[in-house]
Amino acid sequence: MSEEIKNEIKLPTGSQLVLSSSPHIKDSDSVRRIMYKVLLALLPACAAGIYFFGWRAALVMVLTMVFCVGVEALWCWLAKKPVCGTISDGSAAVTGLLLALNLPPNIPIWVCLIGAFLAIWLGKQVFGGIGNNPFNPALVARVGLLIALPALMTWWSPARGMSPTSEDAELWYSPSTIRAAKSVDTVTHATPLDAVSCATPLGVVSTTKKIMGKSIEAQENFAAVASNEQMVRYFLGCKAGCIGETSVLALLIGGVILVLCKLINWRVPVVFVGTVAVFTGIVNYFCPGVTPPPLFHILTGGLMLGAIFMATDMVTSPITSTGCIVFAFGCGIITSVIRIWGNYPEGVSFSILFMNALVPLIDRFCTVRPFGYVAKRG
Amino acid sequence: MSKSSRNVMSFGGGIHPSVDGKSLSSGSAVRKAPLLDRYTVVISESVGKPPKPVVKAGDEVKKYQLIAAADGFVSANLHAPTSGRVVGIVDVPGAMGTSVPAIQIESDGKDEPCEPMPALEWRSAPVADLLKRITDGGIVGMGGAAFPTHVKLSPPPEKEVDTLILNGAECEPYLTADHRLMLEQPEAVLEGAAISARILGVKNIFLGVEVNKLDAIEALNKRAGDFGVTVVGLKVQYPQGSEKQLIKAITGREVPTGGLPMDAHCVVQNVGTAAAIADAVLRGIPLVERITTITGEVVKNPGNWLLKLGTPVIKAIEFAGGVTEEPGKLIMGGPMMGFAQRSFDVTICKNSSGVLLLPVSRSIAYDSTGCIRCGRCVQVCPMNLLPCLLGNVIESERFDLAAQNHVMDCIECGSCAYVCPAHRPLVQHMRRAKAEIRKRKK
Hints:
heterodimer, A: mainly alpha, 19 helices, 0% strand, globular, B: alpha/beta, Rossmann fold, six-stranded mixed β-sheet, 17 strands
């Protein structure tokens, strides 16, 4: 019987057998799959961005991704690396989408192109490509653009559902807005709405503090932007800001997907947001004129986007769980300090980049005790 | 069931391989392999000094007859698996990839045993006699490294061994040889455990079994009390069957770095070894055959066979009905720690727990890309090492840094390489660094 079977199917000769080191089975996850899952988790936020800011936002997202992949291809070609290899892993597309989500909805397209160069070239490839970049590439580009083109990067268009006729119009429309409304942007006027600019909730808080100091009026302003009705609107996404930071709900859905797919350490967003909540909560409790209550801080600005999608970037966050907690705690403190006392209304990007720089140090100290090593006493 | 799964014990880290493969072979009883014309018994199969052949070409041998005698203390006897004529000493491919010497025996078809060693009454026989029988029987660890068992059972008194642990975890996917053994011959396992415990002079005897083998736990529990053995249900988690992790799971003790189980006052033995001890002591039979799992999706009738030492793997696959499609990889052992082979001429040794054939579609030599620092390897490493960082320093040949970062504590379980999304050959890196560091120490 055995002879028959042997004749049916020929066993391969030695040279045809695959020789490799153990283990011989592998988890099905690969870098490419991870990147595609991240893109999937970003979809709710993208959808929210398009809903609240229109198709213009979709154009920014698509083009920024295309630009990032293009810059990656260009770099690989110039550096004589295999071009297809590093594009197909999807990391450039993820960087592109994250960058787009960190841009105002009607940003001129040429800014997206510069951003793509900053992200892929300066943020990633000069360090040796995927895995070697110390800083989150999308944030490198965002902060680079913010410093180089502050006006364009803080020119916010109103989200769907916000109207100048509503009762909080005075608060929503900062004086600079009026000026902007008069000049119609030639590149970006897809709808009449695009021609108008408004302030983000955090921007209002920042301007209020600069103009009114710690006065009673400031407190009233805070109460107005942090009213319960406004909180619900912030949560759903009806607020001015970057494309991706608009809907906290959509970001949370993405976060749940990431945690369920085991792509991020849940400790990072939880500790990051928790630290901001506790820190701003303490300050708000003792000096309510200095900053609005913690829930306002959680629901506005880039905190959720940063905590769920940017601070959790595998490459630029610590590798141990304890390290991740330290990292996220640091992010939370720096974000709060910048938001409360800094010159910028928002501090999430800066805090993450700053903590990115500390990651090697955190990794050095937050190690686990290897098996069989007894902790030294005394 | 509820009782054992509620009290399961485990260690930190580890993985749950997505491929289990045990159901391929766990359902069918162990079958006795038909007699072959020729056996090629590898001489230097165990850790320690290879035994010296005591037969030459042309000699007639009987089954169970000594064919190579232990050379020194850390060395094990080798016996003829069947009766016949010695063809000579030939070189055959070994499971570790190098060519090794082997004694080739041409069977006379009678399978005639020589005068057996007298059976011993293990409860009353002097401990020295029991130990000598294990030495004479050529018993080695059948779970992995094939370390001579009599050495393991003679720890220096200052180590104060107080616990014997029988390893029935069998955490490797696909392998079911230990499972079938515990299910079909629970008494032999328990007897071997009791004999070992008597030699060691210990009272605490634990038998750890992963709770995916509840039928085996049940079978063992029927008689465990008579032999003073406590059967412990272990969480299904790879590498539960690794010595250090098993000791941690059962006793809570950690083997200190660079140490042996006896430094944690434990001796760990595979259940197959225990059954072999029982055979040698109670029935006078030396170790010449073992249960081996012949399995894989491409094998026609996967199952467990009682194979004589020296059975060529190609014959073992034929016992299992051959293959249904062309295999891409031949592995001696399990898929996590086994060794890929380049030839079907490799033979069954005392520590061959499994022969695994993987289909071509799953025999992938992965291209590795750069580390993306996802930290999964850190989460799963049962030794709490940082495999990704070790991989980086080893890639840049900084072996001093690798040693500082505890590469020598790596148990090569492969959990890190299993989860790595960048497909980095981390185990290969660790092995390379360990070999390099050992070489430099000399």
